[in-house]
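Render this sequence as a predicted structure.
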Amino acid sequence: MAAEYYCADSENGDHVDDPSEDALFILISDLNITDNTFVVVQPDEDEPVWFASVAVLDEGGYEVVRRDTSRRDHDVITETSVDRIAGDLTKWMAARSS
């Protein structure tokens, strides 16, 4: 069954349809600097207008990129708390569907 709203894909091939905050937490927690460096979340459609990505940084922590072309929104931050990233992304993605 395809995602109703969005999907998350990690570099190592993990795929989650309509990921919950807990699923995002797990995907982000599984990131490492050797073979699974990023997770991308975007609408499950051709030519999505928004995406969010989380990439592990060599020096520790994560780079979070949120981009929404329909709202001319582009934000890049660094963060160390996986909890905070998963929560913030869940809220940000929910605002995209409204």
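Summary. DSSP finds two helices and six strands in the chain. The first strand starts at residue 6 and ends at 10.
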